[in-house]
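Protein in question quoted for reference:
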Amino acid sequence: MKINKFSKKPTNFKERAGKKTIVCYPNDNLENKNLDILLKARNHLKKKDEVIIPPRDAKTFNVKSGNFFRVESVEGPQVGDLNLFQANNFDEKFYSGKTRALYGTHISVGDKMYSSFPYLRSLATITWDTLDWYDYDEDGGSVHDVIGTRCDPYTSKLISGNDYHYCCHSNLTRALVHEKGMNINEAEKIVHDVLNVFMLTGFTNDTKQYFMKASPVRPGDYLEFFAETDLLGVLSACPGGDCGSEHSSDVAKCFPLKVSIWSVDRKYLDGLKTSNISSYNRDHGLIK
């Protein structure tokens, strides 16, 4: 944290500081021309399946390309940690850092969930968000962040000295082991930084530390996605409940989450631009 100053301020500090801000990754070329088609198509959705995620646990689910899926609040305020994989290639998985660089700290309707290198394509597009009314509050907080990692047993051990097995990292790992037949080492290595669905977060104004507040989510709220390739999803119902007090807890009030899968007649997707893996040739300057 840059709150302690040990170095001496230079005499020419005024000419070295306070320059104009430049957006690192302008996203004008990422304009989502599919969104109008998707917003119309979602008026014709038909429910196919659903999965209930118990509190302090995780479940996997599959979504075919061209289908929609929702993460829904069903019984009480609850946040969820979402991992996404290309269903036939677990090396291609959600890249929260690049998604954050392209869209900002929190994502909503029209934003895409990009995959890891060397693929870097949209795995899914957000098509509806019943919490987009929240916007950003006076503390700079908002919902659906791509800045937090996921609560995990290693950080819990570092800070508290305790072993805690039902944080989101462990929940996601356990779901891959139990439902996809992976061994624990294989599963843990592919669990990745998440989309914190419904979680209300930001950075403090003074120390710029990651903060959380009680989520505004209520039963009936949902975040909806369009799958741009075949997907394996893994969702953890965070042990922090609405994360209004702590996020690795056996005492916080927790509720289940629901994932529902929705299909739509392909005629409503006419004109949709497909999501393709990066065409970069990958020579990295090594081929002369």
Summary: The chain has one domain: 53-263.
